[in-house]
Amino acid sequence: MKKTSVAILFLMVLFTSSFAKDSRTQKDFNFDWRFYLGDAKEAQNPQFDDTDWRVLNLPHDWSIEQNYTSENTAGSTGFLPTGIGWYRKSFEVPTSWKNTITTIEFDGVYRNSEVWINGHYLGIRPYGYSAFSYELSKYLNYGGKNIIAVKVDHSNYADSRWYSGSGIYRNVRLVNTSNLYVPPFGAWVETPQITSDKAKIMVAAIVKNASGKQQNLRVHVSIKDKQNNSLASATKKLTSVSCDTVSLSLSLKNPKLWSIEQTNMYKAEIQVIAGKDIVDRYFVDFGIRSIRFDANKGFFLNDKSVKLKGVCLHHDAGAVGAVFIRDVWKRRLLKLKEIGVNAIRMSHNPGDPGLLSLCDEMGFVVINEALDEWKRNKGKWITSRFANDMRPELETGYGDDFEEWAERDVKDMVRYSRNHPSIIMWSMGNEIEWTYPYYFKMEQSNQGLGNQVLMEETGDGRDELKETAEQIEKWIKEIDQTRFVTTGGVLPKAGNLTGYFDVPDVIGYNYRAENYDEDHKNYPNRKMYGSENWGTYQEWKDATDRDFVAGIFIWTGIAYLGESGPFPWKGLEISLLDFSAFYTPRGHFYRTLWSDQPYTYLATKHEKKAQWKYENGKFIDNRVRHWLDKWLFEDVEQTWNYTEGDSVFVEVYSNSPQVELFVNNKSYGLKSPSDFSDNIVKYLVPYQAGEIKAVGVNAGEKEAEYSIKTANYISEIVLKADRTSMKANGYDVVHIEAFVQSKSGDLVPDKEMQLVFSIEGEGVNIGVDNGWERNVQKHKSNLIVTHNGKAMLLVQSTRKAGSIKIVAKAGKLVSNELLIQAE
């Protein structure tokens, strides 16, 4: 009876507490900032006059707004200017926030950000991909005006091997709590035991006591489903003086597991209770799933074998640069999902929290990667990577910051993203061996001389690279021991000699499939996968032929800015999707390898321009090989516009057992992809105006087809939108795809046309592009020249409801009118 009374009393306390005022306020802090491009002296002072500065919303990347140029820019970073920029924001906080904790949270600022509040210096964060926060409480003017100022110093335009962007390019929040609170990224969920009928859940939270006196608290945790039903709960008492970590164990019956196919999610509500009051309420989204790697059988998700169909991704998104926009990335991930991609490697930096959440929601497993450089910087090129024109005075990078910042940056990466069920591995770094010349010597030496090289180079046989890897792995596991640690290794022979390849739990092989078998034989307990791979059929076959290879990660999933040159070659389109997320030929091809749905596609090339020649009944590769060819795909076109009688090579990609090619309904025979070493069916046919069509055939029945029609003249501009309505929130984006077509409605890929977009109503043009790697037209424009018959316009909502009318013109041609509703 006594126990019952206590329980009832406790429930009454919770019931009463639920009516307390909201104990945690989180404000979107992205709107209405002022920005100045340049070094504004004394701009940190509250009295500084910024009335002439531009007003904008975050996230923001000032580099992508500018013109591409070869002056004071670098091919390594995409030929876009950098510099110094300042941001300022005026805001008020209520007097009720006195004696509470107010924090500003940044998801990422590139680079060397310094922050002031009301003239008080808060600190610097060099690494551009770290999430970080500052407490503002003791410097605020309660009930009055406050000024936050942020200086971003991205002066060095060659500090990266890819486009980084410049500015506050990720989200910012202002958070207010009581002085008894859970700090940013201060709670986490682990699921150490999972069966079909029960899951053990461990919820841990850091509780800070800034009240200045001892407090008797309770920490209450409730596990909720998507409908906000409470499924399990637990409470623990806590006597707190300053800072404590509390762990609670819960049991959940009949858990719905998170997987690639079923992305079930839960929410942990963590309440900090003092007396009758809920003084903080912190939420953690999480999923329940098990992961493991087997040295002989690869990767398992929820005890089911899964071959990783992965891609590497840089963080820029074409026309919007480094700015994270949820709708832009959702469209990109949907396209990858359509191809069959199930895994993403964030290359070569930690991913945006919003992108990780999308991976949770859409069903991708993720490698979140910490760094591209450790103690030594990698070379960066100015005009072109092919010219190898390094300038040592510009070759800065993370190596300059490693000693002071690496531990904090690595641990913060794990802290901010450890609750995402999509993440299965933490990557310490990428191809760090390049920065240690003796690794090359060891790789090229025979077995007996490798250790001798190490002794000669280091003097005592100690390998700094291996020791650094061991240190980074230790930092990661101090924060999270539920996932695997990996790295992208590129010199396996040397790594085996030094022991570097034995440091991570799972080792990634960058472009080293030829080492799979020998290393599996010599190191039978090693868990391995292809961490960076050429996008060829052979790379995928090398993985599927070996159960012990967990999968591959193609370089790359989507075209990215940088790592390019000479100008105007702004980036690399060695990808499944181009800069505008249109399919590339490789994307169509990999869809036939990775998708379970029947799919067939064809492309063409004039015989005189093709990489193939046809001799004695065989198709022979006619290319003069260059090292870059390993990344390049078939040089083909989506056109059926040639001269009568021309001989044309036709390539057909299909996952059907057979394909049949027709030109104007004349059959050129059945062939099988399996009869070709690259799994690409080839034909050589005479050109005739009309239609060319490939049909995928299974057991004599058609299951997929694709055709192209002759289309030489542009008669219309057709606009298509990926949505007809969006929220008037200043974030939502509609993608407008523009196609130039013939009178019969067929794409005209061979004619370029400049389109002029016009937008009326509550929508903002945030970028145009045509997907081409050599397109250096300014993205913040209403003009764009089509490429392959296509172009793209991105329109973002304002914060006002209303209609948006979009039209494109080219001379006398006027497109159809699109009407988008912002609600």
TrEMBL record:
<feature type="domain" description="Glycoside hydrolase family 2 catalytic">
    <location>
        <begin position="296"/>
        <end position="490"/>
    </location>
</feature>
<dbReference type="InterPro" id="IPR006101">
    <property type="entry name" value="Glyco_hydro_2"/>
</dbReference>
<dbReference type="InterPro" id="IPR051913">
    <property type="entry name" value="GH2_Domain-Containing"/>
</dbReference>
<dbReference type="Pfam" id="PF00703">
    <property type="entry name" value="Glyco_hydro_2"/>
</dbReference>
<dbReference type="InterPro" id="IPR032311">
    <property type="entry name" value="DUF4982"/>
</dbReference>
<dbReference type="InterPro" id="IPR036156">
    <property type="entry name" value="Beta-gal/glucu_dom_sf"/>
</dbReference>
<protein>
    <recommendedName>
        <fullName>Beta-galactosidase</fullName>
    </recommendedName>
</protein>
<feature type="domain" description="Glycosyl hydrolases family 2 sugar binding">
    <location>
        <begin position="32"/>
        <end position="176"/>
    </location>
</feature>
<feature type="domain" description="DUF4982">
    <location>
        <begin position="646"/>
        <end position="702"/>
    </location>
</feature>
<keyword id="KW-0732">Signal</keyword>
<dbReference type="GO" id="GO:0004553">
    <property type="term" value="F:hydrolase activity, hydrolyzing O-glycosyl compounds"/>
</dbReference>
<dbReference type="InterPro" id="IPR006102">
    <property type="entry name" value="Ig-like_GH2"/>
</dbReference>
<dbReference type="InterPro" id="IPR017853">
    <property type="entry name" value="GH"/>
</dbReference>
<keyword id="KW-0326">Glycosidase</keyword>
<dbReference type="Pfam" id="PF16355">
    <property type="entry name" value="DUF4982"/>
</dbReference>
<dbReference type="InterPro" id="IPR008979">
    <property type="entry name" value="Galactose-bd-like_sf"/>
</dbReference>
<dbReference type="InterPro" id="IPR040605">
    <property type="entry name" value="Glyco_hydro2_dom5"/>
</dbReference>
<dbReference type="InterPro" id="IPR013783">
    <property type="entry name" value="Ig-like_fold"/>
</dbReference>
<feature type="domain" description="Glycoside hydrolase family 2 immunoglobulin-like beta-sandwich">
    <location>
        <begin position="191"/>
        <end position="289"/>
    </location>
</feature>
<dbReference type="InterPro" id="IPR006104">
    <property type="entry name" value="Glyco_hydro_2_N"/>
</dbReference>
<feature type="domain" description="Glycoside hydrolase family 2">
    <location>
        <begin position="717"/>
        <end position="817"/>
    </location>
</feature>
<dbReference type="Pfam" id="PF02837">
    <property type="entry name" value="Glyco_hydro_2_N"/>
</dbReference>
<dbReference type="InterPro" id="IPR006103">
    <property type="entry name" value="Glyco_hydro_2_cat"/>
</dbReference>
<dbReference type="GO" id="GO:0005975">
    <property type="term" value="P:carbohydrate metabolic process"/>
</dbReference>
<keyword id="KW-0378">Hydrolase</keyword>
<feature type="signal peptide">
    <location>
        <begin position="1"/>
        <end position="20"/>
    </location>
</feature>
<dbReference type="Pfam" id="PF18565">
    <property type="entry name" value="Glyco_hydro2_C5"/>
</dbReference>
<comment type="similarity">
    <text>Belongs to the glycosyl hydrolase 2 family.</text>
</comment>
<dbReference type="Pfam" id="PF02836">
    <property type="entry name" value="Glyco_hydro_2_C"/>
</dbReference>
